[in-house]
Amino acid sequence: MTRTLLVLGGGIVGLSCAYEALQQGWRVTVAERGALGGQASGAAAGMLAPYYENGEAPDAFFGLCMDSFDRYPSWIAEVEADSGLRTGFVRSGSLHVVRHDADRLSLAGRMAWQSANGASMEWLDEAGLARAEPALPPGFAGALYCADEAHVQAPLLVKALIRACRRRGAQLLPLAGELTDAESDASGGVSVQFEEYGRISADAVCCCLGAWSGRLAAWLGLRIPVHPIRGQICAYDPAPIALRHIVFGPQAYWVGKPDGSLICGASEDEAGFDRTVTDAGIGRLVRAGGRLLPALSGVAPARSWAGLRPATLDGRPLIGPVPGHRAVFMAAGHYRNGILLSPATAAAFGEWLAAGGRPESGASRHAFRPGRFGGVGARERAEAER
Ligand code: GLY
Question: Are 238 and 291 part of one and the same domain?
């Protein structure tokens, strides 16, 4: 008999988990309030930059980023083949530029441990940088060049995943109202009560609500300390400067897209669930651009927007089975790396599905277990339900 999966949340993580389950032959429903991929996923610059995102040490999070990064080319190829759509995947490499020799020190430490862990990196002096990225102005002390880092066009990837999921028979369920109740039932499945659809039962549920994950705390009996960090971002279109690589500067990054636009990101501000774009937020990016890349000076971005990154208390995602609920998996809290981490997250979910819901083992998985922040007591539960 075909097993049924309900995915709560249709961002890139939810869609990737849905796609994985569909490939395993599950019947899948994805429930999303608003547009699929309409939150952090659609707002992302689409950088696949596991080295830039890991400054400190080769820890479990670095391992997860690398695992996902290694899966990307074949995963993208499958999504593109299944959907018939392109995703703008480009292995551009990246340049982390510095103005002063002193800034080189912190990057040298990172380069040493990352090169020892497989990164293809080298230090470029001023002349080397000019050869690598001729559009940059003179005056940089050099750059850390990483040949591996890449990017995708996040909105195109979301579109392709939606199409691939649809073609494999996924039901996509738009929500306007609330998820009012959910319970793990005695037969081993789960039933979720939706305001507009009534009760939907499934053999398994995957919780992928991004910044909104905390809403599930009362049902799951779990502390889910995920909070939104707004990222404001803008695009120059057409790009006033043609960059071959992702360029990381001290206050912003720039990514030239195959469609001819140049994306510049991103602020990190705490504004609750407010997705408003502010003059101050975009102004900072524009000024950073003007300082680093004179070609951007005086040019107004063609578009600006914002997304809410789902940040956890320890900066690590929540990926794994939910304790006390045999048929519930959580994949949330991916903070700055939802696009990068989608293939590895979907693979972890797929392993759990294939293992019949048995908890995973392994030290790296341990670091991301959703139960690590403890349970919700009766009082907190009542407060969350209010
Ligand atoms: N992944 C880059 C950012 O969140 O701004």
Answer: yes
